[in-house]
Write a structure and sequence with these properties.
Blueprint (H helix, E strand, L loop, with lengths): L1 E7 L5 E7 L3 H10 L3 E7 L7 H7 L4 H16 L4 H11 L3 H15 L4 H6 L7 H13 L2 H58 L5 H35 L2 H13 L1 H12 L1
Antiparallel strand pairs: 1-2, 1-3
Helix pairs in contact: 3-4, 3-8, 4-5, 7-8, 8-9, 10-11
């Protein structure tokens, strides 16, 4: 089994990490053998298939990152060490994914890795601008100022994105409703009226024939279509998370006539 521990050395330095052992008592004996004073030991649960689904609902939101950055900046400005700040934030953070990331960062710092390198290993949470700014600050010795700037920047960014989302609520609702109504008409209504057109025995417009064919196909193979859409969604989502996928999506978004101009103005703002 794998256990996550928090302990202090003989010099009083905080040390966190993982240890493999059969039982919790065995893990405590291993740590004591290394002359560590144990603060806590937690057994890690075995991964299960539904953890991936739970992770989607427990992902780190923008608000969680803003709160973490502001609290981290405040502690650094109060001359609290990075290790002690992360230790305090670990117990204060409610989001499980962010809490795990904080623990990993603290472990990496204890292993001798710089703060920017530890943040870079959590790329799903801390994006490139965040990491690079801390990396530059480490060279100049201005980590406190950089973290304060990041806190202000993220707060302003969250306010701007909140305004954008609120402005998009109505258009997205209308477009989504249009697609739903269109799918109901094509998949349910058109197949019901198709026999009427066939009995009338006259040539239908090309667009009408296309819609009737699509409606019949969806009515007969709706389950296969749903499975295909789900699989395609997973494939696209996995591709978008890669560096190449992000570049392609950004390039396509900027070339769309109306949406591209909007994104350019948003990025400039």
């Amino acid at each position: 089994m794998k256990f996550r521990y928090s302990a202090r050395t003989k010099d009083g330095e905080l040390q966190v990490g993982y240890v493999e052992a059969i039982t919790k008592d065995s893990a405590a004996e291993i740590l004591s053998g290394h002359e560590l004073y144990i603060l806590s030991i937690e057994m890690l649960e075995a991964p299960r298939w539904y953890h991936a689904i739970l992770f989607f609902f427990k992902r780190v939101k923008r608000k969680d990152l803003v709160i973490f950055t502001r609290q981290f900046a405040t502690m650094l400005e109060a001359k609290i060490s990075i290790h002690d700040s992360l230790n305090a934030l670990y117990y204060q953070t409610a989001n499980p994914s962010l809490r795990e990331a904080i623990f990993q960062i603290a472990s990496d710092l204890d292993a001798g890795i710089s703060l920017s390198q530890a943040l870079a290993k959590q790329s799903d949470i801390f994006y490139e601008f965040y990491v690079h700014l801390i990396q530059s600050a480490e060279v100049t010795g201005q980590v406190e100022e950089a973290m304060g700037f990041l806190a202000d920047h993220l707060e302003k960014e969250m306010v701007l994105m909140s305004k954008v989302k609120n402005a998009f609520i109505y258009p997205v609702f209308v477009v989504t409703l249009s697609f739903v109504v269109g799918a109901i008409l094509i998949g349910l209504v058109f197949p019901q009226v198709k026999p009427l057109f066939e009995e009338a025995d006259f040539d239908l417009p090309l667009i009408t024939r296309i819609f009737l064919t699509i409606g019949t196909f969806l009515n007969d193979w709706w389950f296969a279509v749903i499975v295909f859409v789900i699989i395609l969604g997973f494939i696209v989502a996995d591709y978008v998370r890669t560096a190449e996928g992000k570049a392609v999506v950004n390039q396509v978004a900027l070339t769309i006539p109306v949406i591209g101009d909007f994104f350019k103005k948003l990025y400039v703002a």
